[in-house]
Specification:
Blueprint (H helix, E strand, L loop, with lengths): L3 H4 L5 H11 L1 H10 L6 E4 L3 E5 L9 E5 L11 H21 L4 E5 L9 E7 L15 H4 L8 H23 L1
Antiparallel strand pairs: 1-2, 2-3, 3-5, 4-5
Helix pairs in contact: 2-3, 4-6
Length: 174
């Protein structure tokens, strides 16, 4: 699906809003969070939503979805942008702790889904043969059905991450 922002449509604000709602995959996932049907949802923060990735080749792979439908970081209000970045970093720290990562990989691309969101990959030694970025792994391997967690695995992973998020957020508020 293609978001109106990506196509450069000059439609009315009402049409753009409808197009975004029905065509933006990130907006669709956020709407599922709001109606309680997104099984990967972990926690709502002030500027975004923490969700586990659908596929878990990299155990603990998490996304941080911006509450505002914007394509670029510089499009966000300065205070919101700073808070969004802070919350992404706190989320990354929680992922790191919860899934015993050796290193975190961070990506905010937007070429596929033109709605700000961060990919947070907890990396461990030997997770891929070469010591490179996650995208060196083939799509067929990364998104193989064998890496879809069972309902029970997903529940356990969400709980681990939620516990760490709560610890870090409480610590950051002090």
């Amino acid at each position: 699906m293609v978001c109106a922002h990506r196509r450069g449509d000059d439609s009315s604000p009402a049409m753009k809003s409808l197009t975004v709602m029905f065509m933006c995959e990130i907006c669709n996932r956020i709407n599922k969070i709001k109606d309680g049907t997104n099984p990967h949802f972990v926690k709502e923060l002030e500027t975004g939503y923490v969700v586990l990735g659908d596929y878990q080749y990299f155990r603990g792979y998490t996304l941080f979805l911006c509450k505002e439908h914007k394509r670029e970081l510089f499009e966000l209000d300065e205070n919101f942008r700073k808070k969004f970045m802070d919350e992404m970093i706190l989320t990354a720290q929680a992922v790191y702790n919860a899934f015993d990562a050796d290193k975190m990989n961070y990506e905010c691309l937007g070429n596929g889904d033109a709605h700000l969101h961060w990919h947070l990959f907890p990396r461990v030694r030997g997770d891929i043969e070469s010591n490179g970025p996650v995208w060196w792994l083939s799509k067929e391997e990364m998104w193989n059905a064998k890496y879809l967690p069972s309902d029970d695995e997903l529940k356990q992973m969400k709980m681990k991450l939620l516990i760490e998020l709560d610890k870090i957020i409480i610590g950051a508020e002090k």
